[in-house]
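Quick start: read one record
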Amino acid sequence: MRRYWHAELAFIGQLAERVTIAVEDGRIASIEPESAPPPEAIRLPGITIPGLVNNHSHALHRALRGRTQRMASDFWAWRSLMYRLADRLDPDSYHRLARATYAEMALAGVTAVGEFHYLHHDRDGRPYADANAMGEALIAAAAEAGIRLTLIDTCYLQAGLDGRPLEPAQRRFSDGDAEAWMARVEELNAVPGAEVAAAIHSVRAVDRTSMSSIAEWSKRRALPLHVHASEQPRENEECLEATGMTPVALLAEAGALGPETTVVHATHATPEDIELLGRSRTTVCLCPTTERDLADGVGPAGALAAAGSPLTVASDMHAVIDLFEELRALELDERLISGRRGLHRPEQLLAAATTAGSASLGCDARGLAAGAPADFTTVALDTPRTAGATSTTALDQLVFAATAADVTDVVVAGRHVVEEGRHVEIGDVGRALTVAISEAMDDVPTADRATARTT
């Protein structure tokens, strides 16, 4: 059955007014600007854009929001607290936490997420009876929250560049070797609703030979490949000491760069690294609110884009879930250190949070166009942050002033997921988060008791 939406303004490669969007079988059948709405059309006041894509997520980190500001002096101290959280989760509690986190993303206008998943096994490192139980919990959580998910299944084999064995807290992350990891990921292809990508956790966590094997394997299967790199100065220093190369140079030698690869962070990429990434057309995912929160630094977004690397953005550890804040930070954070404005145009920043993110996850990247998935997000233009926008200034207002709180409607595959600011299926997302986080942080022993406490 064909359904219709009518947008006051829509970004269809350029801003257009009075746009009718016809949807059939989960895809956009037609886009008609300057059109009168059909009688049955759902009205979308404000500006409608392609659905936001959260390119890099660790759903479990949502439970740490606000709990580490007084305790963790740097990334490495924060990581030890994160390991304590990871040790508490099982498939059921992980599902509840991820479901609520993905629902928060939906309220923020996110229609698709890339989940960088390495919490694979039971607490002692042994696989569950279903070896993909944790990944399947994430897939089910996203489906229930109404957003698309690409499960970026991550290989994790060692505790450092010297090849030292895993710490006890890391045993859950590992399949033992790259071949066992590949065999488990092969089984995910049969899971309904699963979109799968591959990941090398980092050059710390995967040896050089295995990196090459994973890169070749993912190319043969046409899977996107993601990897953390140059997030921390210490990571660069240890890599140089162990191999004589930076993490990016080591990935290049392993054959792991290219248009199918996304490097996450690249905060401390050297000029030579930037040239390698750009020349190979490797995508770079920047996560400014995470990089701020962990005192990691400001990534060289302008230089990376100028070198030829597509840019994407993500909320990563979910210090906040607001992709408008992430995308404008690409420009604003660099203004602080460069003393220059206008490094990135608003259209380029919006692309980082929409079409470029889709391409990085191996998904349809056409945005709002006939034949594309019917995934779109509407932002109000009459809130205290966006009021005063006109048809000529709305895009700039959206990029540089709007927040997640200004999202009114979210449609995924032609289905209304968020309507007038409310999640259609989950309803009170704040309550769902409260229950799931209480359970994950061990404040109460079971979700049932958490529910009783909050009713």
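Residues 3-50+368-421 form a domain with the Urease, subunit C; domain 1 fold (CATH 2.30.40.10).
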